[in-house]
Design the sequence.
C-alpha cells in the first residue's frame, strides 16, 4: 500500500469525522476518498488544518500526544493582550487539569489574511479584538480556548495553521490536497508494521 497523507482546511461547523451529527456537518461532505482516516481532531467550532491518512502507524503517530508535534494556531481574542498576558502563555498557565507546558506566543500584527467565517464571530463594539499566534505541543480538550481565557482574553475565532511541517498554504476552506509523506516521516519517523488504521473511521465524541 502506498502511504497517503491529506491536508484539509476544515471549515467552521464541520466535525473531525465522516458522519454528520445534529447541526454539524461531517467530512464526507468535503472528502470522497476511500480508506483515509482522521489523524488527530479539531473541534467543530474551530477551523483550519486537519490531516488524514490511509497509513495506520502514521495516523497513530500524528494523533499520539507523546510525540508532541508542534501545532500552530491563529487565535482571534477579545481585547488586546499585553506583554504580561503573552508572557503567561509562554511560561504556561494553570488550567483545571493542571499547568500547561510553555508555549510560544506573539501578537500577529498585521492580522493574518484569512477568509470570512460563516457565521461571523460576535464582536462587541466597545471592545477591540486582536490576533495572536500560539504554538503548543499538547492536545488537551479545548486547550487553546482555555489558555487565552485564563489570561483574560476569551477566544472568538480559532484557526489551526500548521501541524509539524504541514500548513494551510494554498488551501481554501473546504479544500484538500495531498501532502508530502516523506517530509513528515523525516521529521517524525514511524513504524510501519501494520497496513491499516488502528482506530475506526468515526470516533463519536461530543462536538467541540
Sequence:
Amino acid at each position: 500500500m502506498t502511504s497517503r497523507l491529506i491536508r484539509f482546511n476544515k471549515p467552521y461547523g464541520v466535525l473531525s469525522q465522516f458522519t454528520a451529527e445534529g447541526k454539524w456537518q461531517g467530512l464526507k461532505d468535503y472528502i470522497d476518498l476511500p480508506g483515509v482516516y482522521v489523524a488527530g481532531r479539531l473541534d467543530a467550532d474551530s477551523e483550519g488544518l486537519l490531516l488524514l491518512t490511509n497509513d495506520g502507524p502514521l495516523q497513530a503517530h500524528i494523533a499520539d500526544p507523546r510525540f508532541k508535534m508542534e501545532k500552530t494556531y491563529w487565535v482571534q481574542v477579545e481585547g488586546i493582550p499585553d506583554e504580561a498576558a503573552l508572557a503567561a502563555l509562554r511560561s504556561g498557565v494553570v488550567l483545571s487539569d493542571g499547568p500547561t507546558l510553555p508555549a510560544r506566543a506573539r501578537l500577529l500584527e498585521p492580522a493574518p489574511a484569512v477568509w470570512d467565517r460563516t457565521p461571523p464571530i460576535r464582536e462587541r463594539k466597545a471592545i477591540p479584538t486582536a490576533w495572536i499566534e500560539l504554538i503548543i505541543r499538547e492536545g488537551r480538550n479545548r486547550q487553546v480556548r482555555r489558555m487565552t481565557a485564563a489570561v483574560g482574553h476569551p477566544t472568538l475565532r480559532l484557526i489551526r495553521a500548521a501541524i509539524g511541517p504541514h500548513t494551510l498554504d494554498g488551501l481554501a476552506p473546504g479544500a484538500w490536497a495531498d501532502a508530502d509523506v516523506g517530509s513528515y516521516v523525516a521529521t517524525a519517523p514511524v513504524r510501519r508494521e501494520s497496513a491499516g488504521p488502528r482506530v475506526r473511521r468515526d470516533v463519536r465524541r461530543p462536538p467541540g
Summary: The CA atoms of residues 16 and 42 lie 6 Å apart. The longest helix spans residues 83-91. The two ends are 33 Å apart (CA to CA).
